[in-house]
Amino acid sequence: MFKTELTRAKRDYIKHRTAPKFEPTDIVPLTNIAFRKSFGRPEHVKKAIEQRGWNPLNYYLLTVVPFPDNAIDLTGSDTANKENDPPKIKPINISQGTIGSYYVDLLIEEELKNEGRKKRNQEIKDEQKSKQQKIES
Predict the structure, then answer these.
(1) Triad 52, 53, 54: Cα angle to 5°
(2) What secondary structure letter does DSSP report for 24?
């Protein structure tokens, strides 16, 4: 939906320009127009949040498989009677440990990135201090 609305906004924008050319400053207004029309629809947003199990915000997301194909029951059972109900979420299989290790790996990877950023930031600060000391002396 976003891509469609962005294309429409680009077409409307080009109609009002003398040259069919986009400047870097044109991106934000076009994105704002497309965002409002695609993601700014409260009824659709509420439905998507409900179907994904994101409301209420708690640790429920960590109890389901992160991959949509495994997390949603697509067998079609009981869908004829309950068309408005959200898809059923399958619980994770903790005994194999694949999902737990997936989240642990993500946490460790993010922590290593943060440590690397802090180390690089400290190196840059140290270089600046040494350059400043050389200039002063």
Answers:
(1) 95
(2) G
pLDDT by residue (tens digit) across 28-70?
A: 999 999 988 888 888 888 888 877 777 766 666 666 555 544 4
Length of the chain: 137
Amino acid at 45: V
From residue 61, alpha-carbon distances to 8, 72, 85, 111 in Å are 35, 13, 19, 21
Q: Which amino acid is at 76?
A: G
Does the global pTM surpass 0.85?
Answer: no
Domain segments of the chain as ranges:
1-40, 95-137
Q: Do the beta carbons of residue 89 and residue 64 sit within 8 Å?
A: yes
Q: Where are the beta strands (DSSP E) in the chain?
A: none
Side-chain half-sphere exposure of 86, counting CA atoms within 13 A: 14
- C-alpha–C-alpha distance, residues 128 and 124, integer Å: 6
